[in-house]
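Colleagues,

For the teaching module next term, I've prepared a clean inverse folding example: a structure given as tokens, and then the sequence designed for it. I'd like students to try predicting residues themselves before seeing the answer, so please don't circulate the second half yet.
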């Protein structure tokens, strides 16, 4: 290979790397990518590598062009709210809370309660799911944003009169807010008598039905392929059944011991869930025989795999999220966000030092290790032998998304992350790179959530 043959690829590489440096904020990079694309097309490099970089630039340009209207609409709607923020978020004083979640994540939607957190002031005062908040201390509130602002500006220990509409009747309820900074009562282990309702721990069964169909289709496809049969589905089923049954059993036991729900009990049940998932990965491997080696292919070092994985995470995750937002909001009429879920409720209930620790251990440390052991350590290599790498990567990523059904249709975003983690597993040949990427992602999301 002479220098003349290799020379045309160097400018193309430089152009593409410059483009990558400008795509961390989607759409804003459109002018840069367009200029580099025109330059590459005019050069008309003869080698295959140059054409590959040019096609990548063209694909990037088309994706951002399609997302441009979405970004423009969202930026217009959020502009006023963004301009109202000043200073570091972490420096903001603690916000008062009463323990309610709203049906919609849209700040401009009506303030209708979807869930009342057990043990918090709203639950003790008598606010119910389905109530629509209409006023705070006589001041009318029309939207989620207005209601949150009124409540968060409260002083802990000072009662507020929350007016709600329930069944066509206007009701005034006195609620005493709590501030998660040691001021007022800490409800982390405050039990609330009630029925056993593990709604924060269960997932939408519809998604599991889709997962079962996906597993059945993959099994049928593997039966049509020549070669030895690879056992996988009995191990995955055993791991998931063990995790679900063990989590419900742990939650029920804690419920009985405390005489009701508490945030601390749910956090301990979440920790049990992640530990059971890790045990399930080991049991699944025992049921299905020795681990399957990954198909042969080029390997990268763990460090380089992590760095490239972070690049794919940063450049792809935002674009996939914007595409899902567009479908949810403009095609399905949804709120344009995943909404507030049971995990969000746990996070809100965990804003003391001990609570944050109990939340972070399963979400940031044990959870990523368990999920990578099951989906990238157990499932992906076996599926790759059974149905081939592309389908194995798609199926394992889809199952990874399914176990996050508290996000609704935003499991698509999680499935994309599963694809990045699966790529890291295949390219590095081990679990270290996907575990590191997973821990970094969950850690960042958790830190941002606690600093809001």
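(Answer key — instructors only)
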């Amino acid at each position: 290979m002479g220098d003349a043959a290799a020379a045309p690829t160097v400018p193309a590489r430089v152009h593409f790397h410059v483009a990558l440096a400008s795509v961390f904020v989607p759409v804003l990079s459109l002018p840069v990518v367009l200029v580099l694309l025109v330059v590459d097309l005019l050069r008309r490099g003869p080698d295959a590598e140059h054409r590959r970089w040019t096609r990548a630039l063209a694909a990037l340009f088309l994706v951002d062009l399609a997302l441009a209207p979405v970004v423009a609409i969202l930026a217009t709607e959020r502009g006023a709210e963004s301009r109202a923020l000043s200073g570091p978020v972490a420096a903001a004083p603690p916000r008062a809370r009463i323990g309610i979640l709203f049906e919609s994540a849209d700040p401009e939607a009506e303030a209708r309660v979807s869930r009342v957190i057990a043990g918090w002031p709203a639950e003790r005062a008598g606010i119910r799911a389905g109530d629509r908040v209409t006023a705070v201390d006589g001041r009318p509130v029309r939207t989620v944003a207005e209601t949150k602002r009124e409540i968060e500006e409260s002083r802990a220990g000072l009662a507020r009169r929350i007016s709600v509409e329930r069944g066509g009747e206007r009701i005034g309820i006195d609620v005493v807010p709590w501030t998660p900074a040691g001021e007022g009562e800490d409800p982390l282990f405050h039990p609330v008598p009630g029925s056993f309702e593990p709604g924060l721990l269960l997932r939408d069964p519809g998604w599991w039905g889709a997962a079962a169909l996906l597993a059945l289709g993959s099994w049928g496809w593997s039966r049509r392929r020549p070669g030895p049969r690879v056992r996988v589905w009995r191990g995955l089923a055993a791991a998931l059944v063990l995790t679900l049954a063990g989590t419900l059993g742990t939650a029920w036991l804690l419920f009985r011991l405390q005489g009701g729900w508490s945030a601390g009990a749910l956090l301990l049940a979440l920790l049990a869930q992640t530990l059971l998932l890790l045990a399930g990965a080991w049991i699944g491997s025992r049921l299905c025989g020795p681990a399957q080696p990954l198909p042969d292919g080029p390997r990268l070092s763990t460090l380089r795999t992590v760095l490239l994985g972070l690049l794919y995470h940063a450049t792809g995750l935002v674009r996939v999220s914007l595409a899902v937002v567009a479908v949810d909001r403009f095609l399905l009429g949804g709120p344009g966000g995943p909404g507030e879920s049971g995990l969000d409720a746990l996070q809100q209930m965990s804003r003391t030092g001990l609570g944050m620790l109990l939340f972070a251990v399963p979400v940031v440390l044990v959870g990523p290790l368990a999920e990578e052991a099951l989906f990238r350590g157990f499932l992906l290599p076996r599926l790759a032998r059974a149905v081939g790498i592309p389908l194995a990567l798609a199926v394992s990523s889809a199952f990874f998304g399914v176990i996050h059904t508290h996000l609704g249709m935003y499991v698509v975003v999680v499935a994309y992350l599963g694809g990045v983690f699966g790529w890291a597993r295949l390219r590095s040949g081990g679990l270290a790179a996907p575990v590191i990427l997973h821990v970094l992602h969950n850690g960042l999301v958790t830190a941002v959530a606690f600093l809001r």
